[in-house]
Amino acid sequence: METTKVGIRQFRAGMAEFIASSTPVAVTRHGQTVGYFIPTQGQADADIAALKQASQVLDQLLATQGVDLDEVVAEFKAVRQQAPARKKPKAGPA
User: Fold this and answer.
1) Between β-strands 32-37 and 25-29, what pairing exists: parallel, antiparallel or unpaired?
2) Could you count the other beta carbons within 10 Å of the beta carbon of residue 84?
3) What share of the chain is helix, strand, coil (3-state, %, to 5)?
4) CB distance 28 to 7 below 8 Å
5) 54-73 pLDDT per residue, tens
6) 11, 18, 72, 90: which is deepest, by most CB within 10 A?
7) Per-residue pLDDT at 86 exceeds 90
8) String of b and e for 33-72 (b: at least 16 CB within 10 Å)?
């Protein structure tokens, strides 16, 4: 399979396109390859199936313990409002 070579800035700018592609990408900085991005296609179905199964197990555990989801959500929102806002880190130069 052929690899596409792109600079790091081009890679960051076109990330969505590279993720949707099936072609591996060699990421370069100043002409030197610094890494490879290999998109994984077809694993989404298995991931979704695993998440659905985990959700069913979680639902059973919550029901067994008598946990009320509305209470959990309300508690989460209350704690979230009390927590100080976190600042996003600034991106450094490429």
Assistant:
1) antiparallel
2) 5
3) 50, 15, 35
4) yes
5) 999 998 988 999 988 898 89
6) 11
7) no
8) eeeebeeeeeeeeeeeeeeeeeeeeeeeeeeeeeeeeeee
Within a 10 A sphere around the Cβ of 24, how many other Cβ atoms? Answer: 14
Q: Are the beta carbons of 45 and 64 closer than 8 angstroms?
A: no
Tell which phi-psi region holds residue 73, choosing left (phi > 0), alpha (psi between -120 and 50) or beta.
alpha
The closest alpha carbon to 20, from 47, 41, 44, 45, belongs to 41
The answer to whether the beta carbons of residues 28 and 3 sit under 8 Å apart is: no
Which of the pair, 44 or 55, is modelled with greater confidence? 55
The secondary structure of residue 89, as a DSSP letter, is P
